[in-house]
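Colleagues,

Please find the record for the two-part complex below.
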Amino acid sequence: MLIDVLSVDASQLLRALVIGLIQGSIFAVGAIGLTLSYGVTKFINFAYGEFLTYGAFLAVFIVSFGTGVPIAGLIAIIGIAALGVGISKLFFEPIEDEGPFPLLITSVGVAFILRYSLAILAPETGYRFPIPALRSWEIMGIYLSPIKIVIMIVAILAMLGTHAVLQYTMLGKKMRAYSGNKELSMISGIDTEAVIQRTWLLSAGIGGLAGILLALFSPPFGINMGFNFLLTIFAATILGGIGKPYGAMVGALIIGLALSFGTLFISPNYTQEYGFIILVVVLLIKPDGIMGGEM
Amino acid sequence: MAFELPGLAVYLISVATFALIYGLLVLGLNLHFGYTGLLNFGHVAFFAIGAYTAAIVTSPPPAQAGAVAYTIGLGISMPFGFLISLGLAATAAGTVAFIVGLTSIRLDTHYLAIVTFALAELIAAVIENEQWLTGGFNGMNQVPRPGYTTLPGDIWPLMYLGIVSLGVLGVYLFLDRLVSSPFGRLLRGIRDRESGAQMLGKNTSLVKLKSFVIGGAIAGLAGGLYAHFTGSLYPEQFITHITFLAWIMMLLGGAVSNVGAIAGAFLFIGVRELLRFMPNAGITNLSTNLQWVLIGIMFVAVMRYRPQGLFGNQDEIISGEEDS
C-alpha cells in the first residue's frame, strides 16, 4: 500500500514534520529518563515503560478528585519518582553486585508485576484526561490543537531542566563522574549510594512526565501504553548512544520524524517499526550511536 | 470403531504436547543465553517464523480453501510434506537469525537484547498487517495436521505426542553433543570472557553467530510442530509475552542445563494449567492478570534466591560481566 509520493501536498508534509517533532520531543523526555538510569546503573531497565504508564494513571486518578491537570501531573511525577526509589530498594539493590544480566532479567519481572497489578486495579480498556475539546489553532495552513503545543513546550522545558541538572548541579557532576568511572568516583569520596538513589528518583520522575505527555498526546490509553512505547524509547536511546542524555534527545527527534514520515509516505499500518529500521541502519554504520563520548 | 481415551487422558496428552513444544523453544533459547550468554529478547520471532512458514507451505491454495484471507498456500501434501514443512520452518527461522545476527551479534549484549526485542515486535506487526501472507487477524486455520483425517479418534493426539517427543529427543541429543564438544566449550568461554577467547585467536563473532542461528532454527522447528499440532495460527499466539514465557521456563529449570530447559517447560505449563481453574471472582481477567503478576514474581525470586534454577550449576551463573 504505497502512497504516491506526488499526491502528498505541502501542508501534509508540514503537518508530518510538526507532529514528528512533537512526538519526538515526548520520546526525548522518555529516552532521557531511561538513558540517565543506564548511565549510572549499567543495565537496561525493562520496567521503565511502567513508569510512563503509572505516571499517566496516577495523574488521571488525581484529576478525578477535581484537581487541575498541571497540579495533578506535578503530584504524579513526584509520586512516580518516589515509586522509582522504592522499586530500586525493593528489587534492584539486593542484587546490585550480581552483574548486569540478573538486574536486567529482574527488571523484566518487575515490569510484569507492575503492569498486571495495575491491570487488576484499572480493568477498563481506555482512560483519558477530562480535557475539553479546544478549537485547533491554524498555523501556516495546518491545524494543531493547543494541547499539542503545550505538550511540546513542557517537553522542551524538561529537556532544558535535565541539561541544567547535569551541567550545573553537584548531583549532575557526581552522576557524570560515576557514569564515567565508578571506582574513581568512589575514591574521590562521592557517596555512590546516594547518587544511585537520586538517579532512580530523577529517571522515574522523568518517565512519569513522559507518560503524562504521551497520554495527553494520544488518548485514550491503557495499561500497555508504556510497554508499547518501550521499543521506541529504546530505539531513541540506542540511536543516540546508550547512556548519553544529549544523544537520546537527538535520537528521539529522529525517531519521531521517522514515525511521522513513514506513516505518511510508506504505510499507516506500521508506526514504531520505522524507528526500528532506522535503528538497525544506524547500528550497522555506527554501533556506538550518533553521539560518541561521555555522559 | 473409534479409539477413545478418557477425557482426562486426552487433556494431559495435549498439555504434554504443548509443554514439549515449549521445551524445544526453551532449548533454543538456552543455547543462546545459557551456553553463549546472548541476550535474546525476541525468541518468539523465530517461533512465529517457523510456524507461519510451515503454514504457508502446507496450507491448501486459496482457490481450494474457500473464503480465506491469505493468498499463498503451497499445499504440499501431508505425510511426506510434514518433514519438508518442518525442515523449511527451521531453515526460515535460522535464516532470519543469520541476517539479524550478522548485523547485531558483534554488538554489546545489551544492544542485542534490544534488537531482538524489536525484531519480535516487527514480526508481530507483519503478521497482523500483511493479510495476503499470514491471513492477518483472520489467521491461517487450515494448516493440515498429518494423519488427522485417517487416524481414528484419539490415536492422533497420541501419535503427535510421539512425533514431538522424538523431535525433542533428537534436538536434545544433538545439543548434548554440541555443548560438550570443543565448540560448546568455546561458547562457554566466550560467554564468560570474550576477550580471553579473542586473545586465543578465536573469531568470537562467528562463533556467536553460529550459536544464534542454531538456536533460532530450533525455535523455528518448534514453531513448525506447533502449527501442525494446532492447525490454526493467529497473531495473538505470537505476542512478545511468549518470549518471556520461554525465559521464565529456562530460568526455573536452570539456564546452562538442557534437562532444566525441558523440566522448566513442564513445571511452568503445569503450574499454569492449575491456575486455569482459579475463579475470576467477578473481576474481569483477574486470573490472567494474577498469572502475569506471579510470573513477574518468579523472575524476581529466581534471580535473587536461586539464580541457577532447579538443574543449573551454581558455578555457572551468567552475570554479564567480563571478569566474573
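The CA atoms of residues 196 and 305 of chain B lie 30 Å apart.

Comments are welcome before we finalize the supplementary table.
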